[in-house]
């Protein structure tokens, strides 16, 4: 049953006190696994933003509602890879995608955190929003059960390309889960366009962090 009003949640301090003296690594605990994330100060995409923490926490707490086991999951704008790693721990076949300059750090985090698991090994692929979708991810071959996106909307110029990418991958039968910190009027304008295109439910709000978590599905024609 879809809840009419979103659950009000708090992002829990799921990170573990650092054992290493390196400034660039954060330790998190989800689904019984310690996850070590290397951030990079060079790229926006290589920092763990609050939407990623919110979605990771939500997936961990709502495994019956969103069972990822053996499901095909695509993360767009995967950044540091935290959400993809959590989805992998939960048993999904994960494809983590981002811009070329983020892929090295993304691959490093995903491989080091999933190498000793029996889980399906995640795949890391380049995906620039709105570019080469038909060539690189032809509809005939690629169908995803879940699309995951966190903090993909902020002050950038690729919002139309992002929306087009979400529409491209969110086929009938696909569930899109998008968590985002809402900061700017442009974020809310994007949200309005998003809600006009998809059947949308706000699953949870994290008011202290200004994060909303939305579930969207394709509208039946």
UniProtKB/TrEMBL annotation:
Keywords: Methyltransferase, S-adenosyl-L-methionine, Transferase
GO terms for biological process, alphabetical: methylation
Matches recorded under CDD domains: AdoMet_MTases
Superkingdom field: Eukaryota
GO molecular function per UniProt: methyltransferase activity
Alphabetized PANTHER family for the sequence: HEPATOCELLULAR CARCINOMA-ASSOCIATED ANTIGEN (PTHR14614), PROTEIN-LYSINE METHYLTRANSFERASE METTL21C (PTHR14614:SF13)
UniProt name for this protein: MT21C methyltransferase
Gene: Mettl21c
């Amino acid at each position: 049953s879809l809840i009419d009003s979103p659950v009000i949640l708090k992002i829990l301090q799921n990170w573990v006190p650092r054992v290493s003296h390196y400034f660039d690594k954060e330790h998190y605990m989800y689904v019984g696994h310690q996850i070590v994330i290397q951030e990079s100060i060079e790229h926006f995409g290589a920092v763990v933003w609050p939407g990623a923490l919110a979605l990771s926490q939500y997936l961990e707490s709502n495994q019956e509602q969103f069972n990822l086991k053996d499901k095909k999951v695509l993360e767009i704008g995967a950044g540091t890879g935290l959400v993809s790693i959590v989805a992998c721990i939960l048993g999904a076949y994960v494809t983590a995608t981002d811009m070329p300059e983020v892929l090295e750090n993304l691959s490093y985090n995903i491989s080091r955190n999933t190498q000793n698991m029996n889980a399906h090994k995640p795949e890391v692929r380049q995906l620039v929003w709105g570019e080469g979708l038909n060539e690189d991810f032809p509809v005939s071959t690629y169908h995803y059960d879940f699309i995951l996106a966190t903090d993909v909307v902020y002050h950038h110029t690729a919002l139309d390309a992002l929306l087009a990418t979400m529409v491209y991958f969110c086929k009938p039968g696909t569930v899109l889960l998008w968590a985002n910190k809402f900061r700017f009027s442009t974020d809310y304008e994007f949200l309005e366009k998003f809600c006009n295109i998809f059947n949308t439910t706000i699953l949870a709000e994290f008011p202290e962090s200004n994060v909303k978590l939305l579930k969207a599905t394709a509208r039946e024609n």
